Amino acid sequence: MSDIIQLLPESVANQIAAGEVVQRPASAVKELMENAIDAGANKIQLILKDAGKALIQVIDNGCGMSVTDARMCFERHATSKVRKAEDLFAIRTMGFRGEAMASIAAIAQVEMKTRRHEDELGTLIEIEGSTVTKQEPVATSAGTSICIKNLFFNTPARRNFLKSNPAEMRHIIDEFQRVSLANPAIAFSLHHDGLEIFRLPSSALKQRIIHLFGNNYNERLIPVEEETTIINLKGFIGKPQFAKKTRGEQFFFVNNRFIKDAYLNHAVNKAYEELLAEENFPLYVLFIDIDPSKIDVNVHPTKTEIKYLDEKSIYAIIHSAVKRSLGRFNISPTIDFDQETAFSSMISPKSLDEIVPPSISFNPDFNPFSEEKVPERGFTAYRNTEGSREQSTKNWGSLYEIVDHNPVEQVSMELPGNGPEDKYAPVQKQLMQLHNKYIISQIKSGLMLIDQQAAHERILYERFSLHLEDRKGASQQSLFPQTVTLSPNDYELAKSLLDDIKSLGFEVREFGKNTLVIEGIPVDLGSNQINETQLFEHLIEGFKNSQQELKLDKRDALARSMARNSSIKSGVVLGQEEMNMLIEQLFACKAPNFSISGKPVIQTMSLTELDRKFDK
Measuring CA to CA, which residue among 430, 436, 474, 406 is closest to residue 583? Predict the structure, then answer.
């Protein structure tokens, strides 16, 4: 029997390595930008076509390469950073394994022009599928320009797994933000299909954050700085009131390398304990400077995970530094997320102007020992005699009788899924609101409690799902169209959802750089005063949260986000007609018993249970 084990051809080995290094266009963008940083560039341009599928071009003004280096950089495990094994534990550069360029060249058509500052001519190299097709001298500017065309052209199965252009563009923007945040002293620009997405001048870290995420972030940032013998920590955290439902704006950098670390993330979140509402996540951009010998960065193919020698001490330092910064800027844990909105309106500046001084009225002829009725009070005055005591206790029960001057109308309602039993019907239309949060209704078997917010979410969710299915959401025109400016990442997401958003009833169109115009909103939102801009921003944020946490399809996540953000909330006062309408619409739903998060909407209590509580 002949031998069956043999070495893989170099081209096949490179394609296998490319599967680890280059998962999508964003992976190639990351590798090329980090190479430009390692080359000492202070200006880096990124140019894209079709979200990187057709073209990725990175131009830098770094040190450039000689003819030999230009050719060697495409060989596997060719690197300028590592000479011996010990060098792996003293790495402060971005790239070091020497796999990126070889992997990219194996699955794309690559053209590179490079020239050192001291040379008169540069070098042009063209490679297609690991094969060098051209190498010649060329006149070019100092630095390096690399073009990657037709990514995955020779691995069509990998190309078919790529997402839509807006989805791939969001991944590229994520990588661009991470690299540019880590290097605020370097000027960056990003162009996609001829449009400028970013132009970031060289600046301090705070200005870089503002340039990336928007001018309104200037008031949201709190500085953090801590120097210890173990690590040096610096950066910015966000004020609690600006926390979001998604983790998108959380960045950890170790020796200027972006990392993902759930353990350190927990240290930051722990410092915000009692300051944030449930399931809200704060903004942070934190840089950890540590001795490279105390960490191992070579534990993951994408180099986004790190091992630490003393991670417990690092956790404690981060937690205490963040907590100290929150305290230093007078942010104390006194936020009450359960406060009644009615109380808030009582102490608002507007209500202070309407305060009426208290007045006291009294009857000068009042005699507490008189047998006469006091007309102002509407009850019989107390007499210290046995006869009067019997008279007062005789009608004691009348204090707890509900006086209803209107005849009670009976409507028949049955909870779906309860069979032919009629113990839930009839329901009295005379309803009561408990703490502006629950609706109480009397039923034949006892009483029924309905969570008003969960009920309205269920109603809107099923209605919006239907609109997305039949594409017939009605819209009401806004008297004054509103513009909403989003972050580049959210703008790309909104563009990909535009058709579905219009199906909900929104009238939205693109308007310049990262800006949309809202000309109409869904009729289902009613005639209340609505902040269209805030609603739209919450819609995008809620969509991201639903997709991340529940892995829902696009339309379902959109319907859930819209229902959550436009439903009536706990604390809203409802009238009899509104409560009746809410209940009627709830029982017309396909699944009225459960909210869109799977929690109960309706709770019932039988007379037997009530009797048991009173020991009857």
Answer: 430
Residues 296 and 230 in one domain: yes
Query: Does 213 share its domain with 274?
Result: yes
CATH number at residue 299: 3.30.230.10
Let me know whether 55 and 186 are in one domain.
Answer: yes
- Residue whose C-alpha is closest to residue 214's, from 242, 252, 193: 242
Number of domains into which the chain is organized = 4
Reported as a single tens digit per residue, the pLDDT across 164-211 is: 888 899 999 999 999 999 999 999 999 999 989 999 999 999 999 999
Instruction: Using alpha carbons, select from 355, 506, 432 the residue that is nearest to residue 498.
Output: 506
Residues 287, 256: contact at Cβ < 8 Å? yes
Q: Provide the token pair at 200.
A: 């970031």
Side chain identity at residue 122, one-letter code: G
Q: Are residues 522 and 379 in the same domain?
A: no
Residues forming beta bridges with residue 410, ordered by sequence position: 428
Q: Same structural domain for residues 140 and 211?
A: no
**Domain of 60?**
10-202
Residue matched to tokens 């700085």:
225
Query: 179 and 305, same structural domain?
Result: no
pLDDT confidence of residue 376:
41
- The pair of three-digit structure tokens given for residue 372, joined into one six-digit string: 């006469």
The predicted-structure confidence for 562-610, as pLDDT tens digits, reads as follows: 888 888 888 888 988 889 999 999 999 998 999 988 889 999 999 889 8
User: Which residues have C-beta within 8 Å of that of residue 149, sequence separation ≥ 6?
Assistant: 54, 55, 108, 109, 110, 111
Cβ pair 293, 310 in contact under 8 A: no
Residue 593 forms part of a structural domain: no
424: tokens are: 């839930």
pLDDT at 523: 80
Residue 295 CA to its chain's centroid (Å):
31
Query: Which one has a higher pLDDT value, 299 or 592?
Result: 592
Mean pLDDT in residue range 327-337: 56
Within a domain: residue 339? no
- Percentage of the chain surpassing pLDDT 70? 75
Cα(455)–Cα(477) distance, integer angstroms: 27
Select from 347, 376, 395 the last residue of a domain. Answer: 395
